[in-house]
Records
---
Amino acid sequence: MKKHNSKFLSGKAIERKPIRPNTTVIDLVENYFNAYNAARLREACQLFTQKMLVPESTVGLSLTGALTPAGLGGTCIVPLMKAGFVDWIVSTGANLYHDTHFSIGHSLHRGSPNVNDKALRKAGVIRIYDILFDYDVLLTTDAFFRKVLRLEEFQKEMGTAEFHYRIGKYVAERERKLGIKHSSILSAAYRYGVPIYTSSPGDSSIGMNIAATKLTGSKISIDVLLDVNETAAIVLAAKRSGGKSSVVLIGGGSPKNFVLQTEPQIQEVLGINENGHDYFLQITDARPDTGGLSGATPGEAVTWGKVDPDSLGDAVVSYLDSTVALPIMTSYALEKIRPRPLKKLYMRREEFMALLTNEYNKAKSKKKKK
């Protein structure tokens, strides 16, 4: 074989070795994902396992799109949490709501996107593209949330992390009583101390049910501004401890922005000296040229202070359907890396907030002296 000296040809030579019947996920990713978005997924898997999952790295995960109705809560997110591979989460409320269906004994079914929707409506069947389930699933899940929300411990103001932690306790208890074998995201977060935030708490059926309880005198109130500061505090604490801040963005939308805006909150708004997230990994199907945040690249994020400019070499965007990429990445990581000790960041929120407040006051004082 002819030897090439050009630096441009230093990458591994592409082979045509046939895939074997017993090919593992690691072998598939490392030796067969050679180009295009398969190669970007390979790079994402390697970034995740080689740099993001070192002990000193704190990993934030954002979730958008209808992932949990497709089962990805139990199949991917919960195993990642259990292994200590995800330390804090920002999710749409819809993902948490639909994941709860499974935890209270309901089933969702494979179907077709080509079913007659008028016929489905008449039959009382809900469709999420090619996922089908009975309308009663929504009604009984709503009833479950409203019953829990009426309890005394919810009659106060709280951030979404505390709200989800408290709800998770009851979801976990329902799973135990029903003998549900596989945990939901909410119950797993409760068990493993993973704080979960929702950037738009009113924009889901959980938020709708909170609103319904307010009509009957409930004193529950969600403090979204606390969430802004708590998430920023988590990132600042990771950096000030000498560690790294890693972000894994599944999809885009509001949760992506909420994870990334932690750095502008620290730097731009609070005036604290910081450089941005260290590692950036996104799975998305959104284009960057429409100007939307969902497709915005890590290079663009650098200009906002969201990503450390010195870390652009450690940023990967793979343009794939999350339902394809996430199971592969999860399997690869679980096979490649031993579980990490749980950081249990939920229990340390007050400590982190004290750090953020202290540094903010120092920054203000320093600015006044100038």
Note: The CA atoms of residues 157 and 221 lie 4 Å apart.
---
Amino acid sequence: MNIVRKDLDQSNAVVTLRIEKADYTEKVDKTLRDYRKKANIPGFRPGMVPAGLVKKMYGKAVLAEEINKLVSDNLYKFIHENNINILGEPLPNETEQQTIDFDTQDEFEFVFDLGIAPEFEVELTKKDKVKYYNIAVSDEMIDNQVKSYTGRYGKYIQEEVVEEKDMLKGELLEMANGKVNEDGLKVQDATLTAAYMKDADQKALFVGAKKGDLITFNPAKAYVDETEISSLLKISKDAAKTVDADFQLKIESITRYHESEIDQTLFDKVYGDTVVKTEEEFRAKISENIKEGLVADSDYKFGVDVQEMLVAKYNNLAFPDKFLKRWVLSSNENLTPETLEADYPKMIADLTWHLLKDKLAKANDVKVEAADVDEYAKKMAKAQFAQYGMVGMDDEIIANYAKDMLKKEETLKNIVDKVAEEKVFAVIKETVKLDYKEVSIEEFNKMFEAK
């Protein structure tokens, strides 16, 4: 086999593979012999099918398969051994590639276009300045988190007098002419909450009522949605549309949710036994947790700004534009040339950043170890638990959850990529000049609003 590379310019090359009969004959013959041993053709015993018949039946397909394998294996071997940093995938040349005829040819020539990544070095110094936003933890943020915890760890208590948000339970009877309709709807253990009623007058009938009281109200007036009526009366939505009668509820129970007191019981539920002992320590711990979460937001913004800075700094890299557009269109059948033209600048910016990251990683010997992956997975697990207010979780629980996450191939790949990117950002932080600025969460969020 003969392989020749011809550079058209710094971004484009053509590779020609010439395959001779000697390159494939032995493998084709061996495959056909294997076919002959296994062939099950009527009129012939297994293994006794004439070689000529087997070749006639399968020879062309076997030859094509072997040639394609030779081309693929040797093309990528050539690219790897010659350290050619290609973009996308090799594409058949549109002008020099001749038609292949496996019936008549015994020598073949394949011509491929290659898109070559630009050659450059990334140079960063303290002259490169990037803002880093420290987000201040406000009293309001701490108050909101305290409120979240007291709400989450509260409890239900039976009451005697109804308030708007209480859950009421009792027997519900349909009325007619001011009396209970013996043939009407009856709902045992009906439940309702006055706060969900849209009509203020109907809602007022319940607020201030006592356990044991009989309340007459009209569901059709109280609620505007037949879904709520059907749920209350345990009937279909279609039937709920026709309901216009009054109903009587005998209040059998009044259940109210009481938020937790800010005391040792709450501290222990949130952070574990005796980790926090005073409200001051509780708020300080919450502030610390919020700040940890905000660091991730600050790092994200730093990453966005670094990417924009570096892409702008290296915006003159030469790319094989024609090749890349052809490759993208061939890889995405739903993409149109018009859409590609509109998206192409963003695609090049993303590709530039990808090349910059790779350059920085190699130049700084960035490696992703198994321990790095495990630690990042644990960090993700903690963050997911924290979203539901589950902080201070046992290390073993976190470790097992992280281990389960890493069993998913896609999750593992994403974590490896994120760890590598974080290490690159860490290198950049040490190399450029950070312009620190403290901002409020409101100011920070405004930075992401559409311009």
Note: The first helix runs from residue 21 to 38.
---
Amino acid sequence: MVQAFSHIDVVVPRANACRSELADELIRTRLSAHAPQNVLYLIWRGPWMTVARDTYISRMLAQVNWRTFPEVNGGEHGALRYPVVHGDEPWLADVDRVLLSSEPYAFGPQHFTEAMAICPNANASIVDGELISWYGPRAAAGLRYLRGLAA
């Protein structure tokens, strides 16, 4: 993609700066010791939906030693990448942290009670979905954000 726009003066230096910043943040994240946590990252309500382990979101969370549940891979595309959570799955008892994403569904504090009902042993928080799920220029900031959450 950079090559298609390389004739614009700022594109190549900006792309190189983004790559360098991401590489630095990946190193900082790997050097930070984060306790493992089992996470349910909710992206939708009605029905509850989460992310498969082979999604960008799940891989970002794994950078701070957070394992997304359920333990499924969804494939390259399609609905299986975003499994439905019914609320009666046995693995919900093993979730340490419920993350309510700010997007695509705009979760708010009013959803904590409902989320805690399906994961009574977990802590719940609202997270910035743009920083966690938008790759590219937001990836480095997303890693900084996750390190802060995991600290």
Note: Strands lie at 37-42, 48-49, 66-68, 84-85, 97-101, 123-127.
---
Amino acid sequence: MICLKIIGLPTNMLWLFLSLLVAFFESIKVVLSKKSFNIKNIDEYVASWSLRFFASLFLLPLLFFIQIPSIGNRFWEALLIRDGLVLITTILYMKAIKSSDISIVHPMLNFYPIFLIFTAPVFLGEFPNTYGLIGVLLIVFGAYSMNMSKLKKGFFAPIKAILKEKGPGYMLGVAFLWSIAANYDKIGIMDSSPIFWAITSNILLVLLLSPIMLLKSKNIKEQIIPNIKILSSIGLSSALLLITQMIAFSLTYIVYVSALRTTSAIMSVIFGYLIFKEKNIKERLFGATIMVIGVVVIALT
């Protein structure tokens, strides 16, 4: 592979490098999305459509540099089911970022590998090891400790502090649906190729999101044209995320890639503090770190 020669990594280490890149691009996408809501006053439907539209513009030229693969028997089934799920998660993702601090909502995605423990065996026959339960407990404890300062109000107060906000609930929904959609990503990749799958699935999402945006959003042109720089930046980060993630999926188990992707939660907590001056940074960073450790225990031990 050309990319192996460029970065000088052996094949069995490439997935690790790519997974860390996925985490980085994920955190950048979250920060830019939050900035578009806080500063540019863009609604979640325009943000969702723009994410997929501008990502497609960056992805489409890659068709000239790859060999168009033969399509497998399950490609179209996987594409329709996967994009139906991701259509929902894209909107929920933006709603979560818009309604709450990124340092509290983004770590909720760390529940994604917990859900994968139950969905991956069903869809792909990929079974995690016996350390899964320990990892689950660590993730739950990490989420609990993100509001540890509320403990003086009762044992369940930290959990209530999270659930009373809409953002974390939205993001838990994203994590659950992603755990199903990721399995169809793997099927689609196996029945085509990583980059071709990323391009086709993203284009379909643009088509699906367009009527929703037209129905739900007002002053669409006024939202997009003056803010095209930040919206295209969100799309670029998404395109880079998709390419690296799909290639990583093709190289190893999806639960391994997902484990390292969760390190983006730590990055987002730090960015939330540095850029948006979000509060309770110490306990949120501690909780996010514990959750990441739990995910790594699930995937890599």
Note: Residues 73 and 219 are 42 Å apart (CA to CA).
